[in-house]
């Protein structure tokens, strides 16, 4: 009987220790996974920024945007690009929306709106 109790207590002790080891290993794997995801997110954001600049240069309204607003320091976010119109939001480094560009494709009309106090700063056919 004593042997049985000792064996059961040892088995219980070993089982408890094995579970702690598994939990710490799982936590380590999660930490490595989180770190990898963070690095991936940073590189994805950098790639998206480069892609948006390259994409902008191919748009017909790009030259006018360069003249009217300083897009070098702004991040472009294309909200809509369909057969009728293209809407681009320009944000500063802190993510604050600064300008909105609306290009009506059929009319070839470009509207640039300052989201600060200025309001509409450009509305012409290009």
Number of domain units: 2
Helix content: 40-55%
Radius of gyration: 29 Å
Q: Treating each run of at least 4 consecutive H or I residues as one helix, how many helices?
A: 2
State the end-to-end distance. 96 Å
- Strand residues, percent: 25-35%
Elements, N to C (H/E): HHEEEEE
Instruction: Report on the biggest sheet.
Output: 5 strands, antiparallel
Name the average pLDDT. Answer: 77
Kindly report the spatial arrangement of strands forming the biggest sheet.
Answer: 1-2-3-4-5
Output the structural class: alpha+beta
How many strand units? 5
Q: Which residues sit in consecutive blocks of at least 5 with pLDDT less than 50?
A: 41-50
Query: What would the principal axes of the Cα set say about the shape?
Result: rod-shaped
Q: What can you see in these coordinates?
A:
The protein has 126 residues and is α+β, with helices and mostly antiparallel strands. The chain folds into 2 domains: 1-58; 60-126. It is 50% helix and 28% strand. The protein has 2 helices and 5 strands; from the N terminus they run H-H-E-E-E-E-E. A 5-stranded antiparallel beta sheet has the order 1-2-3-4-5. A hairpin with a 3-residue loop joins strand 1 (75-81) and strand 2. It is rod-shaped, with a radius of gyration of 29 Å.
What structural keywords apply?
alpha+beta, 126 residues, 2 domains
Task: Give a concise summary.
This protein is an alpha+beta fold and 126 residues long. Helix content is 50%, strand content 28%. It has helices at residues 2-57, 62-68; strands at residues 75-81, 85-91, 97-104, 109-114, 119-125.
